């Protein structure tokens, strides 16, 4: 998917509302042309002076000026809704927290639920921009916010209900805060162990899913290998880094294992990780930072 995402007038106005400051007389309200139609942005109170506060207010009320009841044809206009949705996502990084972003998603979907066609279009846009790995706005965390509601909505048909539920089950496994699913691996020396055994022997463990044919994987590995703090922790034995090849081309894995940094554990999964749905691997590289108990601290998607 290669979509031309551009900075529409509406998002330029939105960003101006966030950063204009309370002393700007025109900073309270804005609008922009979107597909030839003016998109009504909410009025931001002048009492809100911090950019994050203003972004929170704008994001959670972004869709208030749009009538989703079916009376306004714009909610069924793919071009208008697509650019408006991109503008909505573009404000999200400026919000103060995930809870605010989640509230904003909930507000949008609760309004869109009044028109089944608008809700279907919203779901398609969320999947297109947030769940397509070649989208510059790809974000599993944000897509989960949509899935948490779409998968249990009474306003979608059964086929889409099952689709969203399946996606939620896949994406929501092994998220930050839970103990990582354990699996057996074999390193390049032929030794076998498990992920949680490795984690228990170190203060922290970085699990790197990679593919030798993946350019982005090589870029990430090179970057990690230049990280002095990480290399120091590996050298001191307080941190383990395991580069895990999760596929079954053993010849490819063995022939390229020597390219990985010294001190790393170079391993291949023996547990059919992807096929059994233990980990969600829409693309590589993908990293998981674990503590000594195996709890996931952070994911790099």
Relevant terms:
disordered N terminus; 9 strands; seven-stranded mixed β-sheet; alpha+beta; Glutaredoxin; single chain; two-stranded antiparallel sheet
List the helices and strands and how they pair.
Elements: H1 9-19, E1 31-34, E2 37-40, H2 51-60, H3 78-91, H4 98-112, H5 116-130, H6 140-150, H7 158-171, E3 184-187, E4 192-194, H8 195-200, E5 204-209, H9 215-225, H10 228-236, E6 239-245, H11 250-256, E7 265-269, E8 286-291, E9 296-300
Parallel strand pairs: 5-6, 6-7
Antiparallel strand pairs: 1-2, 3-4, 3-7, 5-8, 8-9
Overall description:
This protein has about 300 residues and is α+β, with helices and mostly antiparallel strands. It has eleven helices and nine strands. It has two domains: about 10-170; about 185-300, Glutaredoxin. It has helices spanning about 10-20, 50-60, 80-90, 100-110, 115-130, 140-150, 160-170, 195-200, 215-225, 230-235, 250-255; strands spanning about 30-35, 35-40, 185, 190-195, 205-210, 240-245, 265-270, 285-290, 295-300. Helix 1 (about 10-20) crosses helix 2, helix 4 (about 100-110) packs parallel to helix 6 and helix 6 (about 140-150) packs antiparallel against helix 7. Strands 4-3-7-6-5-8-9 form a seven-stranded mixed beta sheet. About 40% of the residues lie in helices and about 15% in strands. InterPro entries: DUF5106, Thioredoxin-like_sf. This is DUF5106 domain-containing protein. It holds the Pfam family DUF5106.
């Amino acid at each position: 998917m290669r979509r031309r995402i551009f900075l529409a007038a509406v998002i330029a106005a939105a960003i101006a509302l966030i950063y204009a400051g309370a002393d700007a007389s025109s900073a309270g309200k804005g609008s922009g042309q979107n597909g030839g139609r003016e998109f009504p942005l909410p009025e931001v109170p002048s009492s809100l002076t911090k950019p994050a506060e203003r972004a929170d207010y704008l994001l959670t009320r972004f869709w208030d000026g749009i009538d989703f009841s079916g009376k306004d044809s714009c909610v069924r206009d793919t071009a208008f809704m697509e650019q408006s949705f991109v503008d909505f996502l573009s404000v999200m990084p400026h919000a103060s927290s995930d809870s605010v972003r989640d509230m904003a998603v909930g507000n949008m979907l609760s309004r869109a639920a009044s028109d089944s066609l608008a809700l279907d279009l919203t779901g398609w846009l969320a999947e297109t921009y947030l769940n397509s790995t070649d989208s510059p706005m790809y974000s599993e965390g944000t897509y989960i916010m949509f899935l948490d509601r779409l998968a249990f909505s009474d306003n979608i048909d059964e086929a889409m209900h099952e689709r969203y539920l399946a996606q939620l089950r896949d994406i929501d496994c092994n998220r930050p805060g839970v103990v990582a699913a354990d699996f057996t691996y074999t390193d390049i020396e032929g030794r076998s162990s498990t992920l949680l055994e490795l984690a228990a022997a170190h203060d922290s463990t970085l699990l790197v899913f990679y593919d030798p044919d993946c350019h982005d994987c090589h870029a990430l590995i090179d970057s990690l290998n230049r990280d002095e703090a990480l290399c120091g922790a590996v050298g001191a034995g307080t941190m383990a880094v395991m580069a895990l090849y999760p596929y079954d081309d053993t010849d490819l894995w063995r022939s390229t294992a020597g390219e990985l940094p010294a001190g790393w554990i170079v391993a291949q999964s023996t547990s059919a990780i992807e096929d059994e749905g233990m980990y969600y691997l829409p693309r590589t590289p993908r990293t998981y930072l674990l503590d000594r108990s195996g709890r996931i601290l952070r994911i790099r998607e």
